[in-house]
Amino acid sequence: MNRRNKNYESTYFLYDNKFYKQIQGTPMGSPLSPALANIYMEDFEEKAINSFALKPKYWYRYVDDTFVIWNHGAESLNNFLDHLNNIHPNIKFRMEVENNNTIPFLDTLLTKLPNRKFLHSVYRKPTHTNKYLNALSHHQSPSLSTTQCYEVIIISITLLITSKLQK
């Protein structure tokens, strides 16, 4: 085992006054962990898609949410989901299919129109409380601005997806 791997295999954390050793994955809270997870998942997805007979028309991922357009029928889509879930014991996908030509993705609701175009609107999960932090509260201000930046990124991704789907 080389030195780089040793650093990622000796992560400990404290919970309920007990120390635990993390035995799999990247260190929780490490700034490098999201980048490594993205690199790994990109490779995982490429191999998974290329090793299945049918291919999705579109495959978009943002962190742990994936938007897929599948033109090969429900049965083959379920087979593809089984294929994805049998590659790695700790990586599992769940599927939500469109209902009444709509599907939520990130914080948007995509609606498929009869002319093959898409509308998008803000989507709030049923658990959304509509409560926000007061700007004068003593919470870290960078987290608030980071959250707002993520919302802009999410909306931008949705706009990109809808524009590509309409071509």
TrEMBL record:
Domain Reverse transcriptase: residue ranges: 1-123
InterPro entries found in the cross-reference section: DNA/RNA_pol_sf, RT_dom
Domain of life per record: Eukaryota
Pfam families associated with the record: RVT_1
Biological processes annotated in GO: DNA biosynthetic process
Entry protein name: Reverse transcriptase domain-containing protein
Organism field: Pyrocoelia pectoralis
